[in-house]
Design brief:
This protein is of the alpha/beta class. Helix content is 47%, strand content 16%. The protein has an 8-stranded parallel barrel with strand order 1-2-3-4-5-6-7-8, surrounded by 5 helices. A two-stranded antiparallel sheet has the order 9-10. The model has no long low-confidence stretch (mean pLDDT 95).
Length: 285
């Protein structure tokens, strides 16, 4: 499954120190897991968490789920050892918190070799420098840290997230320019299904590939919001068929549902079908 087609609808944080949670994650219908050595792990457990997580990943059982390990920052006492441990783990990427420059990514790359790197984007400086961070040759994904960003901005909570739109937009533009994955921040009220759905829909409309989650109860809503709907799949098929028919008859454009269909619409339709196929493959795997 290619990086572009691979779905990232649901990206669940799991504490790297909790064996029960690590085991349960194998049964959840998530597209990716962030195995956390940072915020979700108490100070006294941080060293042991590396071994616990390494053993869980070595045992396998996570199927097609993308396995991302979030380490502590390299400016902490645990960061360098976390990075070296993660480099040896059976994971797909290493996630660095509070990334603010390409130099920080270089420092991690020196510790993890050719292991793909993801970046937590959660500070104003990180947003401003998003283009250079996204352009780093080992960078494969952005994860929005909206709780930290809200704290740094000193914003009030708003359902429309208007105070964070500039930062979210900068990171989206940088990620899309470089063709890397970008997933939206968490929704804290894990029992508020209506609020979660609204924020997932907003994120999908903005162009995010999926949403980070803090609780298994949020998975179903995120999976539905970031997957192509039956109507979108049907429209994509009809657009492709109509365009191919128009081309065969020597016409440059086609019309579907009263709207012009051109090359760019066909490209979007093809991507929609590829995403639907990749999601179906995840469910089988």
């Amino acid at each position: 499954m290619t990086q572009t087609a691979r779905p990232f609808r649901s990206v669940l944080y799991i504490p790297g120190s909790k064996e029960r949670a690590l085991e349960k994650a194998k049964t959840l219908p998530v597209d990716a897991i962030i195995f956390d050595l940072e915020d979700a792990v108490a100070v006294e457990e941080k060293v042991n968490a590396r071994d616990t997580l390494a053993a869980a990943l070595a045992a396998g059982g996570y199927g097609n789920r993308m396995r991302i390990v979030r380490i502590n920052g390299l400016d902490t006492q645990w960061g360098e050892a976390d990075a070296k441990a993660a480099a040896a783990m059976d994971c797909d990427a290493v996630l660095l918190p509070k990334v603010e420059s390409a130099a920080q990514v270089d420092a991690l790359a020196a510790l993890v070799g050719d292991k793909p790197i993801w970046a937590m984007m959660e500070t104003p400086r990180g947003m401003i420098n998003a283009p250079q961070i996204a352009a780093h040759p080992q960078m494969q994904g952005f994860v929005m840290g909206t709780n930290d960003l809200a704290k740094e901005l000193n914003t009030r909570f708003r359902a429309d997230r208007l105070p964070m739109m500039a930062g979210l937009g900068l990171c989206l533009l940088a990620a899309k320019a470089e063709g890397i994955v970008i997933v939206d921040g968490v929704y804290n009220a894990f029992k508020d299904d209506e609020g979660l759905k609204a924020e997932c829909d907003q994120g999908r409309d903005m162009g995010f590939d999926g949403k980070t989650l803090i609780h298994p109860a949020q998975v179903e809503i995120a999976n539905a919001a970031f997957a192509p709907s039956e109507a979108e799949i049907d429209l994509a098929r009809r657009q492709i068929a109509a365009f191919e028919e128009a081309e065969a008859s020597g016409q440059g454009v086609a019309v579907v549902d009263g709207k012009i269909v051109e090359n760019l619409h066909v490209a979007t339709a093809t991507a929609t079908l590829a995403k639907a196929e990749a999601i179906a493959a995840m469910q089988v795997g």
